[in-house]
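Before the break, one more example. Copy the sequence into your notebook; we will annotate it together after we see the structure.
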Amino acid sequence: MLKPRIVKVVETRIHFRCEMCNNHKNAKMYEYRGHSYVEGYTPKYFKKVCEDCVYRECYGSKNWRIKKREGSLNDTSK
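Here is what the structure looks like once it is written out:
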């Protein structure tokens, strides 16, 4: 069974407003949909999310900067 992708890189360099932190960014733009732990609930699907918010949501508030430095979500295969 394939693992569902929750993060996808949309643009490599673009100016946009992040939907999570509501800041203007000139960086990579991601699409993000969180996990649903409650039956029958579908979480909000974010289409314009900055790199910092994506790593913070995926890896938590403690180790997200280490994972960002490693580039663990920057998979070029789509």
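The radius of gyration is 13 Å. The mean pLDDT is 84. Try to locate both features in your own notes.
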